[in-house]
Amino acid sequence: MKTENEELLSFIEASPTAWHTVENLSAILRDAGYSEVSESEEWKLEEGGRYFVTRNGSSLAAFRITGKEPESYMITASHGDSPSFRIKGDAAFRSGGGLYFSLNTERYGGMICASWMDRPLTVAGRVAIRTGSGIRMKNVYIDRDLLLIPSLAIHMDRSANDGKKYEANVDMIPLLSVSGEDCYRSLLAEAAGAGPEEILSAEMILVPRTPGTIWGAEREFLSSPRLDDLQCVYGCMRGFLAAEAPARTIPVFCVFDNEEVGSGTVQGADSTFLEDTLGRISESMGKNLSGHRALLASSFLVSADNAHAVHPNHPEFADRIDRPVLNGGVVIKQNAAKKYTTDGYSAAVFETICRKAGVPVQQYSNRADLPGGSTLGHISTAHVSVDSVDIGLAQLAMHSCYETAGAADTEHLVRAITAFYGTVLRKRRDGIELITPADGKA
User: Fold this and answer.
1) pLDDT tens column, 193-248
2) Helices (H), 73-226
3) Residue 105: which of 176, 164, 57, 153 has the closest Cα?
4) Spatial distance between the Cα atoms of 394 and 154, rounded to a whole number of angstroms
5) Which end of the chain has fewer beta carbons closer than 10 Å to its terminal beta carbon, N or C?
6) What is the predicted pLDDT for the residue at 89?
């Protein structure tokens, strides 16, 4: 049998883009007995039913109707997109004074540019195909070493090792061909099973071809493209499917697109997707607006996106106290400016759940003089105002095209999320009661 991390690497390999991630998750959910519902149709949900809904083919929400009178939603949210380079327009153009064909690109998100150079790449995404009655969208992945972004030789750039500013429109252009014609559109059409004249448009990104691996003296490390944030997507999905959720809660598993560019899209966390989904679940269960708001007031969101580990060569960039390490357990992230949603209440709730499940917990905060990133938690809670904690797994080289994490931490997250979905939270005037699987009551 495959280990947890071998399954994770297989999941990542099958998920080169946010569209492929949702396609992959949809197949897994169907195999687990989940039925797809459409946003463009009325929902008729049944007690005991298992459902999922997608938006734009790149965001997904799955949920179970566990009982007639739920007390709360228990939600996890992560993101399926990663920093990359978007292929622009008709893409191919003559480069090198007319000697080559290259692809025209622009940045998607904030990546470490140097990590993309001198390694095999390909393209993946989705295309719009003309049909007799309209348009069909199809996910596409050209499964071969197709492109490469060549470095400039040290002999021509003696300052290459002294710090370099990369110009996205010059240095980061991938080489496609030395042929005398533009073959890119034909390659897309072949991968889509259509004629070149049938391709109406394409949304394609560069994808690294280097496979994931488990390595280290004791095989304690895990490296792969897109660990941020597919490691959390995978861990939350596994916990969601494994948990025996109590009849008093509705478990919800969400994956959003476009986190790396601010989430401000119709399918991002800054949309109505989660708000609409929860509202329609409540409505199908006969809840009026007041009843729905009461459900939300007792609900909880885990925003799961990986965290920075202390770097072995640059420990000075970490906080002096909050110093997560690989394989040290789930990381709870905090920020005074509320770029992370965690507060004293939500941190205590999630740490209690983890401790009861035997999962180690670490703390992360930015070094006080260095601005950090943010994630989708505080954006989601602006639309669905529920208590929330930001968590992740410690990793190195975040936003490199090949990232590193701890091999033991994948299981840590699966166990933590399984326990989270199995927990009932009951708010009291002076605190909260947590009934977890460890209590034998949930």
Assistant:
1) 999 999 999 999 999 999 999 999 999 999 999 999 999 999 999 999 999 988 88
2) 184-192
3) 176
4) 34
5) N
6) 79
Query: Measured between alpha carbons, how far apart are the two ends of the chain, in Å?
Result: 31
- Distance separating alpha carbons of residues 98 and 95, to the nearest angstrom: 5
* Cα 87 to Cα 84: distance, rounded to the nearest angstrom: 10
- How would DSSP label each residue in 397-412? STTSSSEEEETTHHHH
Phi, psi of 281 (to 5 degrees): -65, -50
Residues 309 and 359 both lie in one domain: yes
Count helices and strands (H / E) in the chain.
9, 21
> Do 20 and 120 have their domain in common?
no
Q: How far is CA 23 from CA 136, 172, 174, 238, 437, in A?
A: 15, 29, 27, 16, 32
Please indicate, yes or no, whether residues 274 and 397 belong to a single structural domain of this protein: yes
Neighbours of 321 (CB within 10 A): 7
Residue 151 belongs to domain spanning: 84-208
Please give the model's pTM, rounded to 2 decimal places.
0.95
Identify whether 362 is part of a domain: yes
Taking the C-alpha atoms of residue 417 and residue 294, their distance in angstroms, rounded to an integer, is 24
For residue 109, the domain's CATH number is: 2.30.250.10
Q: What is the pLDDT of residue 440?
A: 57
Question: Any idea how long the chain is?
Answer: 442
Nearest to 207 by CA among 409, 19, 406: 19
The answer to whether residues 201 and 253 belong to one domain is no
Give the angle 102-108-109 at the CA atoms, nearest 5°: 140
Residue 317: the pLDDT is 94
Cross-strand partners of 201? 128
The helix-helix angle for 18-31 and 227-242 (nearest 10°) equals 10
Indicate if 239 and 304 belong to the same structural domain.
Answer: yes
Residues 6+ apart with CB under 8 A from 194: 127, 129, 138
Q: Same domain for 73 and 98?
A: no
Q: Identify the segments of the chain with pLDDT beneath 70.
A: 1-2, 180-181, 438-442
Q: How are strands ordered across the β-sheet holding 121-130?
A: 135-141, 121-130, 199-208, 84-95, 100-108, 175-177
